[in-house]
Structures are given as C-alpha cells and as structure tokens.
Amino acid sequence: MKKLIIIILVGFVILAGARQLLLPKMVERGYEKLTLENVGVDRAAELADGLHVYICGAGSPLPDPKRSGPCIGVLAGDQAFIFDTGTGGARNLGPMGFPVGRIETIFLTHLHSDHLDGLGEMLLGRWINGGRSEPTPVRGPHGTAKIVDGFNMAYQLDSTYRTAHHGEVIANPSGFGGKGSEIEMTDDSVTVFEQGGVKITAFRVSHEPVSPAFGYRVDYKDRSISISGDTAYDLNVAKASEGVDVLLHEALNMEMVKTLENSAKANGADRLAQIFNDIRDYHTSPVDAAKTAKAAQAQALVLYHIVPMLPNDALIPLFVKGADAHFDRRITVSEDGTIIRLPSASEDIIYEYGL
Ligand SMILES: [Zn+2]
Ligand SMILES: [Zn+2]
C-alpha cells in the first residue's frame, strides 16, 4: 500500500513537472495561432452584401463596464460610416472586425461631449489604418467645424511624431485629422450623403437646450436603419424612420434614474441628485422608444445610449419593463460588441456579438 502511494505521488510530481515545461510552449503556440487568424485580416471583406451595424459604444456619460460612450459603425456595401465617437468606441471597432481604414465620413448627432470625446482616436485610427491622403470628413450640426479644428490642433504635434517615425507612406501628413462641415437643417430632414447606393438622411430630434440635434437614417439597397441620437420622445423620429428594418433608439429608464436621484439625495449628494433630475427631460424611456418603433413600423428595436448603467444583465428586465406592451417585435438592449446584420435581398435580421 505504502509503495502504491509513493508511486502515485512520484507520478504526480512528474506530471506537474511536464506541465510546467509544456505549458509555456502551448501558450506560445496558441498566441501565434490566434494572431495569425486575426491580425491584419479584413473580416469585413467576406461579409454578405448589405447593411451591417456595429455598436462600438452602447453607453452614455455614466460609466458602465459593458457600455462605452455612444458610437455606431455602419457598413453599407463596401462603404463604412461612423455615427458619434464616444470615448472607448474607436477601440472596440478593430476587435469587432469593422474596417476602420475604410471610414468614408463620421457623422455627429449633436455636440454633447459624450458623443465626440473619442473623435481624436477615431480620426487617428482611420488615418493610420487606411493610409489616407485626405482628412476624414466629419459632418454634424452647427459648431462641428470648430470642434474638428480643435481636435486637429490638439493632435497636430502627435501627427508629426508619427510621420517622422513611420514615414509618409504609412502616415501621410495630408491625410491627418478631420475636415468638419455643418449640416443645414431647413426642414424636418435633409439628405446628407448619396453615393454608391447608400443614402443617408439627417433628421431633426428634440434635445433642448442642445439645438439642433440630429438623428440619421441609412438606406442601402432594400435594407434600412435609423439612429435616434439623443432625444426626448419625438414623433419626428418615427416619421423619419418609417418602415426601417432596425430602429436604434436611445433609452433612459425614468424610474431607475429617479431611484438614483433619491439615493443621491439620501446620501446628501444634492448636486448629483439635481443632475439625475435634470437629465430625465431630454431623453426617451424604453416604453416611449417602443411606441416610436411601433409608429415607424420598424421590424426591430435596438436600444443604445443606455441610462442608467446596467453592469449586470439581471437589471435588463427592469430596464425594459412595459416596453413589450407597445412593440411586439424583438427589443434588444445593446452593449459594446452587439452587431446586427441585414443582408440585402433578404428580410433576415442577424444578431451577433463581436467582442
Ligand atoms: Zn448623450
Ligand atoms: Zn446629448
């Protein structure tokens, strides 16, 4: 018996030693395999023709471990667009397989900081990844040009370091930064892009005192989406989104934010309580977003710009409580990494997770 125990113990020691020797080699091999399968691979090149939506930032100014600042990438055929550049969004696009170097235009819904504080990183990513020789067009409401000029100024020195280090083929100075231009909204909506079968329409939304503030609709072949931007419940969103496959709507749960206000007040944080009170009047509840989706006759509703933070999925039913009474199709509470694919010549809506 004693002998057997000794043999087993020696066996364990030998196995542990072998594992110690083999494990680093296995990790190294795995790392090589993983990088070969992913680094520099254009995963967008193999996609079905259609509209592909990448939620690079599903959150708001409130910190949420699952949701960066608002950011939506759209691939329409072979043209790529970005709608808002919230902080953290640019970093999610690469791992999600979005072709950052192919971005045609960045559209801003409005000029609240949470929608543009990642603009510098987005411009840098498109410049270096795409080897572009012209600045990235950035379009948005009045004030956009000034903001883009500011980012250009802030990143100017960095751009000289990159050109000096990588050379002009990789970091062509003429492709650095952005070129801002402003959308004139004289009616409820205006076409802002039409090329290669892609039509993008900006529409007016209600986010006072931020005015104007826009939502955007993207049509490509027989598929379409719309993006609400930040807005209070507004019938113009439904009007501009009529018949879309997917309505991406901002959402703030009024009762949950009221609870934040009460808790802040109970803890003597009156300033914070006041902010939680103020933000409720210029956003839309999940229930009202569902009403908008129904009025628009959308095929699906995807909520983003989620307020408050939902660090645990157990909170999702509370967040969307009552919404399904107004919209009987799928309602998705998005997070960073949510991808929605709309292949052309099809009615399919395919949901994936890309992070
Ligand atoms: Zn916002
Ligand atoms: Zn806003």
List keywords for this structure.
single chain; Metallo-beta-lactamase, Chain A; 355 residues; 26% strand; 8-stranded mixed beta sheet; globular; 9 helices; alpha/beta
What order do the helices and strands come in, and which of them pair?
Blueprint: H1 2-38, E1 50-57, E2 71-76, E3 79-85, H2 89-96, E4 103-107, H3 119-130, E5 136-140, H4 144-166, E6 178-182, E7 189-195, E8 198-205, E9 213-220, E10 223-227, H5 235-240, E11 246-252, H6 254-266, H7 270-278, H8 286-296, E12 300-307, H9 316-319, E13 331-333, E14 338-343, E15 350-353
Parallel strand pairs: 3-4, 4-5, 5-6, 10-11, 11-12, 12-13
Antiparallel strand pairs: 1-2, 1-14, 2-3, 7-8, 8-9, 9-10, 14-15
Helix pairs in contact: 6-7
The protein binds zinc ion (2 copies).
Rg, alpha carbons: 24 Å
The CATH class designation of the domain at 58-100 and 188-353 is Alpha Beta
Quick one: biggest sheet? 8 strands, mixed
Overall SS class: alpha/beta
Query: What's the mean pLDDT score?
Result: 95
The small molecules bound here are: zinc ion
Second rung of CATH, namely the architecture of the domain at 58-100 and 188-353: 4-Layer Sandwich
What does this structure look like?
The chain has 355 residues and is α/β, with parallel strands linked by helices. It has a domain at 58-100 and 188-353: Metallo-beta-lactamase, Chain A. 35% of the residues lie in helices and 26% in strands. It is built from nine helices and 15 strands. The protein has helices spanning 2-38, 89-96, 119-130, 144-166, 235-240, 254-266, 270-278, 286-296, 316-319; strands spanning 50-57, 71-76, 79-85, 103-107, 136-140, 178-182, 189-195, 198-205, 213-220, 223-227, 246-252, 300-307, 331-333, 338-343, 350-353. The strands form two sheets. It has an eight-stranded mixed sheet. A seven-stranded mixed sheet has the order 7-8-9-10-11-12-13. β4 (103-107), α3 (119-130) and β5 (136-140) form a beta-alpha-beta unit. α6 runs antiparallel to α7 (270-278). The longest helix has 37 residues, at 2-38. The protein is globular. Bound molecules: zinc ion (ZN) (2 copies).
